[in-house]
Amino acid sequence: MISIENVSKSFTLHNQGAATIPVMTGASLQVAPGECVALVGQSGSGKSTLMRMIYGNYLAAAGRIMIDDVDVATAAPREILQLRRYTLGYVSQFLRVVPRVPTVEVVADPLLATGVERGAALARAQVLLENLNIPERLWALSPTTFSGGEQQRVNIARGFAYNYPALLLDEPTASLDGKNREVVMTMIEEAKARGAAIIGIFHDEAARDRVCDREIDVTGFTPKAAA
Amino acid sequence: MSPLLNVDGISKFYGHRIGCKDVSFDLYPGEVMGIVGESGSGKSTLLNCLAGHLAPDTGAVNFDTRTNGMCDTVTMSEPERRMLSRTDWAFVHQHARDGLRMNVSAGGNVGERLMAVGARHYGDIREQATDWLGRVEINADRVDDRPTAFSGGMQQRLQIARNLVTGPRLVFMDEPTGGLDVSVQARLLDLLRGLVREMNLSAIIVTHDLAVVRLLADRLMVMKDGHVVETGLTDQVLDDPQHGYTQLLVSSVLQV
Questions:
Q1: ipTM of the predicted assembly exceeds 0.90
Q2: Does the beta-carbon distance from B239 to A98 stay under 8 Å?
Q3: In angstroms, what separates the C-alpha of B178 from chain A's closest C-alpha?
Q4: pLDDT at position B56, please?
Q5: Phi-psi bin for B16: left (phi > 0), alpha (psi -120 to 50), beta?
Q6: A15 touching B, CB under 8 A?
Q7: Are B239 and A101 within 8 A, CB to CB?
Q8: Where in B126-250 does DSSP place strands (E)?
């Protein structure tokens, strides 16, 4: 489902003396449907960078990032938008929303984007919010004023609203209490069971051991410092 | 799927100064494109060339018309272009007073565009106008008030209602949220986003506000000194800018 071959990435800072910082080279990995792969490595080793390249958020300098039959590294913006709408979901660490939009609509949004009828989309959003223990009195409010944990749960609900065949999870269980962590674990297991290919970053080792089938250490993709 | 708008090599010069140079892109149905850059970068010149307000010196702006397929709007006759600009096209000005008749009632402002495309039944026109005022969150009891009695944010929403009432397929927006305070801006953005999805609108939004494009635009084009320096997916251009100027632009935004 997800196949990455020989991807490299560097950042060029034009306004700081055109410094070029190579951050990744020769990154390759495969994820099959129904499989969950964890990216591991210390902070700053490039886990999030790799994940962002897969989502098309960062531009890969070289290599192929195949998701289904689309190469994210070379696809046109509208192909990537299409891919994000129907194939590739992403739960980021931070929630970014239009101010004023009620939580339930934020969660239903990915479904509405795929053309699901409004009533059905909102009903699904309510089920998700309920499972993630967001009190019903908050559903009509914008999540911008919610606590960190609540925002993250809204973000997870949004990421799981549509059944994407491929999912990227950036620390989905950070800042969650035990009960909600358990809910999220179950959601990930259900996604695997329906055949989703998942790449995740988990700092929580117990969570990682429970849902992930394999680990890939991204420090192996770090360019060797020029001697 | 074929593009709704195909822009091919548009240039505009003011004497020997460059307004915008050699701009080309495709816009597909339902797609929202943002054009960003500092003042004087040629954003508004380009938008005005695309919308037929300025004649470009070179290039073609091909639009997929309902009747004749792809037509170059630069070379089409004036009556044809005017017809297009009151049916399939809409233009939202930065200053609402440029896009409204300030001495005609709110209902009249919306109704005028309907009458321009042939509506004559007063009851129907008034009903549609009132419906649209509701959709842009203006109370029905304000239908007979003049825009001079409206706040800036209300005037902007009225301008949007006036533009969208004829069901256009392509909307040009020049700094639609400029000059509005942030709470009004948020409300307007939310409204625009909803309308874009509901009506499957394509839009080109010129702005210098990067937060606005992040929320509204699918794609981004960055201009400097009349040239396009970078294009791409909105979040990619903002999160991983490649060109030195874009990097400067993104890093200059003040964090709230």
A1: no
A2: no
A3: 17
A4: 94
A5: alpha
A6: yes
A7: no
A8: 170-174, 202-206, 219-224, 227-233
